[in-house]
Amino acid sequence: MNNFNDSLKKVIEFSFSNKSSSHNASKEFLKEFSSDKIQIFDLEENKIFIESNNKLDYIYILVNGMAYIAYYTVDGRRIIADTLNGVQIFGLIEAVNNTSCYSGTVITLSKSLLVKVKKEYFLEAIYNDIHIASYIIKYLAAFSTHSIKASEYKTSISPYENLIIYLYNKTLKKNLPCKIKDNKTFIADSLHINKRTLYRYLNRLTDDDIISRDRQDIVITENNYKKIQRIFNSINNI
């Protein structure tokens, strides 16, 4: 188990370092630790790797890429709880709370690199290795802070303003013009609104020349981006 703890510690240390921002470099580094206890794998965009209510057998580390967590209401409506990038650990909170099933469905939003570890091995490593435990405590603290701030932020502003923020974040650091091809159902679920309301907002943004359209795609030109940035700054009181 000591060899496993050493390997997991190196995997976690690397994942939380700046070096993990490169997909190919991360894959090359992590393959050294691939074993029957630590599995490394790539997933393409829009792939489910955790399903809600399935038995919690594994903990997943998202080393590189982006994913979102979805919950489903009793009437089948999907709610996007959060969109996460950077290093994330899925299944950890449920495992620490001794929950037997995953609480949400997790789906990739981009090409992603993941590490898959058996729940029992992961928990034993936390309980027996102070360095691993330290990383996990810091991660849980950061995740809790993010969740609280995201919840407060979303409820303190309107869905229309949340859409502006969504478009701003999707366009940030991208070459312009930028085409946003996100599924409209996904955007609506992320904003907790229905598609009819979303299209009404998009039409309003188009009429005000805040976005452009290319058939079903949203297009952000340089002029559009400047307007979005001004609105984003006013929302955040910058």
From TrEMBL:
Q: Which PROSITE patterns did the record assign?
A: CNMP_BINDING_3 (PS50042)
Signal sequence region: none
Q: Which Gene3D superfamilies match?
A: Jelly Rolls (2.60.120.10), Winged helix-like DNA-binding domain superfamily/Winged helix DNA-binding domain (1.10.10.10)
Q: SUPFAM superfamilies annotated for this entry?
A: cAMP-binding domain-like, Winged helix' DNA-binding domain
* Chain ranges of the Cyclic nucleotide-binding domain: 41-126
**Annotated InterPro entries:** cNMP-bd_dom (IPR000595), cNMP-bd_dom_sf (IPR018490), RmlC-like_jellyroll (IPR014710), WH-like_DNA-bd_sf (IPR036388), WH_DNA-bd_sf (IPR036390)
Q: Do you know which Pfam families this protein is assigned to?
A: cNMP_binding (PF00027)
- Protein's recorded name: Crp/Fnr family transcriptional regulator
Organism expressing this protein natively: Clostridium aciditolerans
